Fungal-specific transcription factor domain-containing protein (Podospora appendiculata), 709 residues
Amino acid sequence: MASSMSSTPGSAMSSNNSNAGSNKPPRILACVLCQHRKIRCDRTFPCANCTKANVRCTPSTPAPARKRRRPNQDLQERLARCEELLKEYATEKPESPVSTPRPVQTPVYDDPQMNWQPAGKLVKEDGGVRFMDSFLLGTVYDELKAMREIVDADDDDDGSPDSMTPDGNSDLIIGADTPEQSPESLWPEPGQLFRLWQIYLDRVNPLTKIIHVPTLQPYLAEAINGPQNIPKGVEALLFSVFTMAVVALSAGESQALFGYSRDEALARFSNGVRLSLMRSSFLKSHDLTTLQALVIYVISLQGRYNRHAAWILNGVVLRIAQKMGLHRDGEVLGLSPFESEMRRRLWWQIIMVDAKFAMFCGLSHQPLLPRSWDTKPPRNVNDADIHPSATEPFQDREGPTEMIFCLMQYKFAEFLVHTPGLEAMIMATHIDGAAGAGGPSDEQMMKFRHTAEALGKELIDLLSRHCDPAAGPVHELAIEMRKHVVQKVTELITYPKIQPSWGGEQKSMQSNAFKVAVGTLEHDESNYMAQKDKGFIWHSLVHFRIEIFMYLAGQLCHRTEGPLVDRAWHQVGVVYTFHPHLLDVSSKTNYTLAIFILKAWRKREEILISRTGRVPETPFYVDKLRAVMPSDEFSPEGSPPIPFNTPSMMAPNRRQPGESDPIVDQLLGGYLDVSALDWDMFGSMPMNMAGGPVMNNMGDFGLGQQPEW
């Protein structure tokens, strides 16, 4: 009786709960747009956010309930195996692998560490590829992959919630406040699309060789009316191609092609790159096409945006490449010849970009690379010589190919990699007292000079085997660049006091720094003239170092006579001719530069009048600066401060002092308040023990401006 009575209330309660559950109103989900934008939805239809945005409000539907499955015996066994492996990993007693991987080529390295270190393996996961050189964790991933295949085989659900989720990690790099636009709305018109593609092939591709033209070109026909029918990675890659093509255009060409300015075209397609990268979840879905898009986009940032921010972004590129195993040669990993070759091209381009940005930012690139990498330089082959279905390794073609310019870059990259003390050697050559206790020995300096001489010989040998001026403009450019590289390296490794010019205007290390600055700008002029008729001048213009020019302008305020001064004033005219944006004094950097140029010209004018007795012809840039400056009589007295590498000076811009760079904010996700930094603290360049300015690494001695580097 008691038992029966005690069970009655419980049954009644259960019945009430069941009725309550059946009468429970259905759960209302946030609308599709609010879910995608990750904002709060008021769960009314239409919701307030959609009403405000004047878009259609689409209610979300709950995912269908997954069917309950009986435990799979094979899955249980693999779980047990995975647990055993993890226990072995915890006790550091790994066993031999169960399955023997297919044999791959095992090269012999000079570095003993590279010989005993495992080659690693590529793990395919979530639609991407990740590199892993831990044997035990690689085995664990093999087990997890097999387990996932078992689960997927039993799963009738085609959709994957994770694949439909936007990549929130991208906000750390690209920025969360992207405009409410779609890549489709930013896509070029059909005529513009093919014109941009041709410009990229003519002006950019010969100097980068990142893409395989025969593989990518068929996608253009599918994307003529928009990117709806092409993969997301290809969409991002084509947007990067469009961006680089606009970089290679002049202002007049851009206006004629689009009907609007070059800056507007760059902003449009750059925004398309960023949106496409976010849509492809580039930080977690690693594939070669998306990485190609990211590398080309980073190259397009040169000369346009803050080089420090671009270098930080390239660090992300380097980490993604390392995660994909690009630092290990494809032959070692057992990849196909085609994929191995494309990975080599991309890896060596990443090395060059990273080394260049590092030098521009005053850093040595060597510690930023993976400690051990063995990726071979690309082959001397044309795109037509390699095909995705190839099974035999590619061999170097005898004679000229379209790879000549990139092969020269890779030779110099190899020189940088194997000469980690390059900056110290140059500083010891050009600063009195630098080569002493704690500095490089005479034997090390001699070894460095021999290495530099070997670089020149290797470049000559490369050109003799694979270069022919009749093969096209890029081969003519390669010959000119070889001369400039050898000449510049030879000059930098030669002690100033034994140079023929020592003793005249060049009497101290400070005057030698002025000579190097003048020579650097003259080197730029040679590049401009050599490339302007070949379509490659953009490559030199993006390497212009404005801080070198500002240093020269400051020196001209108190250096008034001599052949070196005459050469410097000629370079002032060259710079303003090829960089007319410097005449826009709405930028703080350009405004400061204008003050020093006008002050230096007043002194220059006085000297010329006293020497010749007549008023000299006023240069065009002085007339234009006087027309836009309030007055050139308010310049500061005394020697002007020598400008240092501040982020406000890294690239031409038109922002007012204290105004934030929106692209930097996007690249850094809005976490750095650039406008709050006090740039005046960097106003003067520190002096060395000889009384001369301490140049920032080898870049300020001119190497940073080499267009081929």
Notes: Strands lie at 121-125, 128-132. Residues 60 and 314 are 38 Å apart (CA to CA).
